[in-house]
């Protein structure tokens, strides 16, 4: 077989060793990920209970899903948590990165402190903030002991604002990672750009807003994808802090899926909810993949 075309190595045999080495990973992805995904979507159209069975019921599981108050509460909580988490994570993470980028003293120490919460599991983070937000011996209890008897701050016990208590814990853990990503992007900005901005008399905030941030577009997009994928899968924090309570006030889709698949033994309903979560992730990932890879091919 000819391995050269017009004096160039055939594309098929270029980087052959790397392609051979990637075969196990590709097969694993096809069998485990794509196969598992197809299996989940298929059985979401069945009436499977304790065990999966091919008893098709059409869209009944999806109609039942979107008619369930618990699922609607989960979607509403995910929307609130996701929107605020995206905004605050990016803003706080970028501000911290901008401060550390000023070559301050003890930068390594501050960077370690800010990133440390990310090294903890979500269960540990949830338990820590469950204690800190406890009305008896958390923030509220400490402030009242200092003399402010009327001070009230117990979001985990208030159904109206419980999702914001979970948001606080999520931001505390995840903002450090965002800060590191942003700091890496800032360190990649050419020093000559900063010098030119200072020579032209451009204020620092304008330099960040109109020059630096547009140049960091790939970093922002990647960070958004990482945050968004974590938001859709949020489960541990909720279980550790509230177990979905008070009542179902802090229910999220991932917990809904787990409860129906393992506690309620209703696989069909759990598969339908999983498929909707998969669709949400696809809505985030597909545009990102297009903008990052599809547009480059046409440039």
UniProtKB/TrEMBL annotation:
Gene3D superfamilies: MetI-like
Gene Ontology CC: plasma membrane
Keywords, sorted A to Z: Cell membrane, Membrane, Sugar transport, Transmembrane, Transmembrane helix, Transport
Presence of keyword Nucleus: no
Species for this entry: Mesorhizobium alhagi CCNWXJ12-2
Coiled-coil annotated residue ranges, if any: none
Domain of life the protein comes from: Bacteria
Family: Belongs to the binding-protein-dependent transport system permease family.
ABC transmembrane type-1 domain boundaries: 75-290
Membrane topology term: Multi-pass membrane protein
Listed transmembrane segments: 21-45, 78-100, 112-132, 161-186, 207-232, 271-291
Subcellular localization: Cell membrane
Keyword check for Metal-binding: no
One GO-annotated biological process of the protein: transmembrane transport
Name of the protein: Permease of ABC sugar transporter
Cross-referenced InterPro entries: ABC_transporter_permease (IPR051393), MetI-like (IPR000515), MetI-like_sf (IPR035906)
